[in-house]
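Section 5: illustrative case.
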């Protein structure tokens, strides 16, 4: 073989190897960008659901503040003993307190409807991912560990609101029980 022939083959081999390397790098880059894009899209969906649930919880907090500022003073006023009460007044007071209790119950149902698992589901993860160590590690490897933090935030806010609403409901029940029948009705 002559030197020019060998030089030509080396050039063609170099070009072929370079093309294979470039194609491999392009394929790797495309795969990486596609997986990164999927992760970003799933994270975006989870954040949208998080904001929606946070908005619902904020609305529930506003309702609870309304109950505290408007309805609770009225409930305490109704439970105060008065010297001139007849059976109809007592029944009317109890009904009004039951109405306040119903509003608290509806609030608790609304809070209960805000499920942290919806954030996890929006990211395309299994709802029990938080509780399974392997699934949790897999989610963190995929870059979706932040979704679990968002669900934890929703859970903490929800728990706080439920506890406050339960305390209000117990107070209303106590006030309802404290309303006495008139002496001639006993």
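Designed sequence:
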């Amino acid at each position: 073989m002559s030197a020019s022939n060998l030089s030509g083959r080396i050039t063609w081999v170099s070009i072929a190897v370079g093309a294979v390397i470039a194609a491999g790098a392009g394929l790797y880059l495309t795969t990486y960008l596609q997986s990164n894009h999927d992760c970003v899209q799933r994270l975006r969906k989870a954040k949208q659901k998080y904001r929606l649930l946070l908005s619902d919880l904020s609305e529930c907090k506003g309702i609870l503040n309304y109950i505290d500022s408007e309805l609770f003073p009225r409930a305490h006023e109704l439970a105060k003993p008065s010297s001139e009460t007849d059976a109809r007044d007592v029944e009317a007071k109890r009904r009004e307190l039951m109405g306040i209790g119903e509003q608290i119950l509806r609030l608790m149902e609304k809070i209960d409807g805000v499920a942290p698992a919806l954030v996890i589901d929006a990211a395309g993860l299994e709802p029990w991912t938080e509780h399974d160590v392997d699934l949790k590690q897999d989610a963190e490897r995929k870059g979706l560990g932040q979704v679990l933090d968002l669900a934890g935030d929703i859970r903490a806010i929800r728990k706080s609101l439920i506890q406050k609403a339960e305390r209000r409901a117990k107070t209303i029940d106590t006030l309802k029980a404290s309303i006495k029948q008139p002496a001639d009705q006993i």
